[in-house]
Amino acid sequence: MSMNASIEQLSRRLSQRGFDIVSVFAASAYNKEIAIPLKLDRINENHSHGNGETICVLVGNTKAIWDPFLRYLKQHPEHIETDSPLDSYIEKSIKSSLPPLFSSSIIYSWSRSPNFISLQHCASLSRLVFYENKYSFLCIHPQYGPWFALRSVIILDQTYNVASPQSNTDVTKGTDPSEPAKPMECPIPQEELAKITVPADGSGWKGLLAMRDSLSHL
Hints:
The protein is α+β, with helices and mostly antiparallel strands. Helices cover 31% and strands 18% of the residues. It has seven helices and six strands; from the N terminus they run H-E-H-E-H-H-E-H-E-E-E-H-H.
């Protein structure tokens, strides 16, 4: 199965489980843009394949996750009492979405050192979002605004050959995957961004909610 076909199959499987945001980027492009402590290549040295490019798949969701998640809890009520039922669902769903014989490593949003990476930068590199890193430090999606979540990065053991023919459905979108993509332009004027309500320290979830609301109304 080709790389594109594998990723399309993975995307369909994830969507059925409520993960309706899937985007791709090259590990080498991420490593060029990020500080040494967060580089992908220090996680697994086996992800190095000569002239090929190691492709990563970023997984996220909108509110589409809630119906599949609630069905899962009805089928597995014992998980309701776990420390994080949603994290358990995310981990099980992403693993079960991988096609047969699909070799990969998975890093989750809750992963800690030495497996911590910047999901915001991954989303920006794949041109999925605009990463607003001056006022809110939130990712802004052109359709969903700040109302979505980034859940994991799947590092594929398969490689993409940069010399291969490319098409509109290609994982590299017709670009050299080793080069960072041009960032998405901010969908909100800079003068409007300055009006974002940034929560004061200690304001908790209500302050964060107010900040997201202020972004949504721009």
